[in-house]
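Researcher: Structure for this, please.
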Amino acid sequence: MKKSIFEEYQKIKKKFKTIQKNFLNKSSIYNSKSRPSLQREYTKLFKIISNFKKIESIRKEIEEIKKLILDEELKSLALEELNKLINLKKKVENRLRNQLTPKDQNDRKDCFLEIKAGTGGSEAAIFAKDLFRMYCKYAESCSWKVEIISINEIESGSGYKEIIAKISGKEVYRKLKFESGGHRVQRIPETESRGRIHTSSCKVAILLKVDASEIKINQNDIRIDTFRSSGAGGQHVNTTNSAIRVTHIPTGISVECQDERSQHKNRAKAMSVLLARLKNLELKKVAQEKSYKKKFLFGSGERSDRIRTYNFQRGTIVDHRTNSVTYQINEVMNGKLEILIGKIVN
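Model: Predicted structure, C-alpha cell format:
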C-alpha cells in the first residue's frame, strides 16, 4: 500500500472509530438532530474501510498463489487463480478510488455543448455535424432535452463551423464534463477521388450552465452589439438587427446569437452562454490554485486535451485518456456513448 494511501486509510479509521464511539454514548451530542447525517457518514466510512481490508486480503492471497506457481503440478491452476485475483483486486481498487474521489457539486446541473470545426476545412465541419448528431442521440437515450442556442453552417449546409446547444436533464454535467477537448476523425471524404484518408479535427467544450445569481458581473463590463443575421430564418431575420453579440470586456469573451427572430431572445441566449464561459474560466482558476484537475487520472477536460480519434476505415475509436480501443464506431456514432463515457465517469 502506497504511503499516501496508507495515511489516508489511517485518517479514515480514526474518524470511523470516533463516530462509532459517540454512537454508543447516549448522552453524546452526536445523538441529537445530527444523527441521520452521521449515520450516513458511518455507513460511507464502513464501506471504504471494508474495501481497504478486501484489497489487503486479496494482496496476501496473490502472494500465496505466486508461491504455488513454482510447483509444476499446480502451476496451471495457480495461474488461473492468480488472474482471477488480479482482476478482482482491480475492481475493488476502482470501487475504492471512486469512494475516495471528492464528489463534484455541479454534477446534477445542466450544461452547454459547444462544437467548433478545426483543421480539415469542410470535412471538419461535416465531422462537427456528425459529433452533434452523436451527442443528440446519446441525449435522447438518457431522456435529456437538447435546445440549439446558436448554429453557424457552411455554405453547402452539410456541416457546422460552430454549434452551441443547451442540454438539460438528469446528471447531464456528470456524464458529459470530460468530453471537452480535441476530437479527431480519419476517413475518406465523399469528394476524395483517389481514396486517400484525410484527418480532420473538432474542438468540443462542455460548459456548466449557471444562473445569473451564481456569478457576479459588472454591467459596465458588458458590451452588446446588434447586427443583421446572416443565417436562416427568412426575410425578417435578414433585414432587421435581431442578431446579438455580447462581449465581456475584461476577458474578451464574446458570444453571438442570431437564431431567433427576437432580439430579446437572442440576447438572453447569448448571456446564458457567456455566463457559462465565465464560470468555466472560474472553475479552471480554482483547479489551478489547488494544483488539482478534475478526475486527474483521465484528463482535465480542457480544450487542449486529446479526447478521441475516430477511424472510420478501421472501424475503431481510440480514447487517448484510457489508451483503450473500441471497435463499435457505428454504435457510438449512433448515440451509444455509454460504451466510452462509462469508462471515464465510473
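Researcher: Any notable elements?
Model: Confidence is low (pLDDT under 50) at residues 232-237, 291-303. The chain is about 45% helix and 20% strand.
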